[in-house]
Amino acid sequence: MIKKLFICAFAALSMVSCGSQEKQVESVVDKQTTMDEVIMSRRSIRKWQNKTVGRDTLDIIMKHGINAPNGKGIQAYEVRVIDKPELLKEMSDAVVKDMPEVGKREGFKNIFVDAPCVVFIAAYDGYDLSQVDCGLLGENIILSAWSMGIGSCCLGSSARMLNTSESAAPYMKKLDFSEGHKLLYCLALGYPDETPDAKPRKEDKVRYVE
Questions:
Q1: Which position has the higher pLDDT, 19 or 13?
Q2: How far apart are CA 191 and CA 178, in angstroms?
Q3: Nearest to 145 by CA among 190, 104, 100
Q4: Could you give the residue ranges of the DSSP H alpha helices within the chain?
């Protein structure tokens, strides 16, 4: 009798254990599928719906951003977010005042591709790998945003123009980056109004070394 009870108990535990393992495997598969979909479907967006990104949503995206890996755990960067299109237009107009050729580009609207929200990411010159940290931070922001249906576009030239435009200096001061920090790049954010095709990637950029 005792032997029978022991066998039944062992069988029940085995079933529970197997069920738990199956759920764990399913969970891992689900996560892999989700990440694959997010990464492989992401596109750079330059056309936007007339719709704002709520600050509650932005808070989540920024939280995901600052939880990216970072050297020595010092988070060698600073982030500023502007979600006021009128302020972004003023900043762009200031740049165009100094660089009128920029405003003559085909399809030009503003230096932020007319996005309703822009993230400004500054690197810290006191840490030589700060730019790596800024890149990791930005990729987390991009993927987090895309997982919530929000598109993005990485804008390096916009930062370059802002850093060199005298007329934009008051707006750069308004960003209030701490001493030792310099704007590295910007991320345009908004709800997409286009579905661009994927651009080809050169797979021979990756090689295994034996």
A1: 19
A2: 31
A3: 190
A4: 2-41, 55-66, 85-98, 100-103, 130-147, 156-164, 169-175
- Are 198 and 125 in contact by the 8 Å Cβ rule? The answer is no
pLDDT at 24 over 80: no
Cβ(61)–Cβ(144) under 8 Å? yes
Show contacts of 181-184: CB within 8 Å, 24+ apart.
181/77, 181/78, 181/122, 181/123, 181/124, 181/125, 182/122, 182/123, 182/125, 183/120, 183/121, 183/122, 183/159, 184/77, 184/121, 184/122, 184/123, 184/131, 184/134, 184/159
User: Can you tell me the distance from the alpha carbon of 179 to that of 131, in angstroms, rounded to the nearest whole number?
Assistant: 16
**Dihedral sign from CA coordinates of 140, 146, 152, 154:** positive
- Could you tell me the pLDDT band of residue 3, with boundaries at 50, 70 and 90? very low
pTM, rounded to two decimals? 0.86
